[in-house]
Design brief:
Two copies of one chain form a homodimer. The first copy, chain A, is mainly alpha-helical. Chain A contains six helices and no strands.
Amino acid sequence: MTLGQKIKELREQAGMFQRELASQLEIGDGFLSKVENNQKTLKREHLIKISELFNCSISELEALWIGTKLYEIIKDEQEGLNALKVAEQEIIYRKKYDIL
Amino acid sequence: MTLGQKIKELREQAGMFQRELASQLEIGDGFLSKVENNQKTLKREHLIKISELFNCSISELEALWIGTKLYEIIKDEQEGLNALKVAEQEIIYRKKYDIL
DNA sequence: TTTAGACTTGACTGATTTAGGTCAAATGTA
DNA sequence: TACATTTGACCTAAATCAGTCAAGTCTAAA
């Protein structure tokens, strides 16, 4: 699940058109279309608005927001999955020894 | 293991000084120092040179190169680990259904 | 079958960020 | 003291961000 898919899902479940959601977010509907298709990214502040509008978890949206960015970086990479593991191990290692 | 650590390790195992490796890579030694401490990133082409110089796997270097970049993005993120999972699931999903 | 409305797409833009460095001074160390 | 390394300040070109707008496409319904 990407952020774009999630936003589209939330919007449709609320029976809302792109135009309406776009205006709530104060962006154009063409831009929102691209966001839903992961061709453009929203500002982080927009996630707050979305979580309020659809009453959903901001943490989940943030995970999708960052995760979709990461995916865009590695999607055409041979070593994409291994790169994810490198990053994961590093996070785990730092946590273990409490290095900030 | 980050790319910086790896490079330092390879360099020291070869008994080489930063100045020497830096000159092989045609960069300044101050810059290499930052690379080894993950404050700056090398160009991708540099990885090839390094793999030749130390006779090590280019794939591993690339995984570390991308992975260290990903780590820099998520290291201060609450949802960092979840974001990695989002990206991983997306890769796996696309592979499963053969979506390019 | 026309047409209205929902959505997608392509071309473009200006501001901001990042990439990929340099150099000199400060610091660590044998 | 000499040499290796780290750090901070700075730099420029290129890329990315966060959009707009108009034209094109898709799909129901009249």
